[in-house]
Amino acid sequence: MGAREVPPAAGAAAARAINGAVCREQPQSARAGSEELVRSCLSGVLSLAAELSAHAAMTLEEIHGQHALPTDHDWMQGASKALHELLVSAQRRGCLTAGVYESAKLMNVDPDNVAFCVLAADEEDEGDIALQIHFTLIQAFCCENDIDIVRVNDLAKLAAIVGPSEDSGEPRDFHCILIMNPSEEGWKDPALEKLNSFCEASRNVNDWVPTVPLPE
Fold this sequence. Notes:
This is Growth arrest and DNA damage-inducible protein GADD45 gamma. The chain is α+β, with helices and mostly antiparallel strands.
């Protein structure tokens, strides 16, 4: 069984939920923290979470002969350095989209052009129900569309790497970042390839959204 398989209903539910969230949100309210959004998404998210949990349990039972994910310092440092390099490269090439609203809209319109996803949250964000709903939907959507995804636990470091919007100079929402495929044919990024390998190794031990520390 492929490592990226999820229940078809779960992926479809994520697509419908993201589409609905995009339609209801306004651009000036990227995190969509309204009670209406929470009520409309919550029942679907609970059902989706149950499906994904059941699937994860089956997946764990079916993994045989897999090597454990390396946890040594060098392995994690390599992923950390690769993520930093990928963010800088994507920003320079104009292939980076930041913001929960902006990312959800793009994933709904053009998921095939998304190469990588980063979800970021600080400790205080754990109590943000609307944000956690979006994270659940984005994770399911990435899995369904074969998009590698990692989490980061330091928004300040992420903001320092990516910086403000080049167009307006205004601060951006860094809770979700998408790396897009550039227009050049045959483009390959060594940092992206390294992160793809890291995510694949993580999935082999049932860690679907690994956390990657950013370098100091």
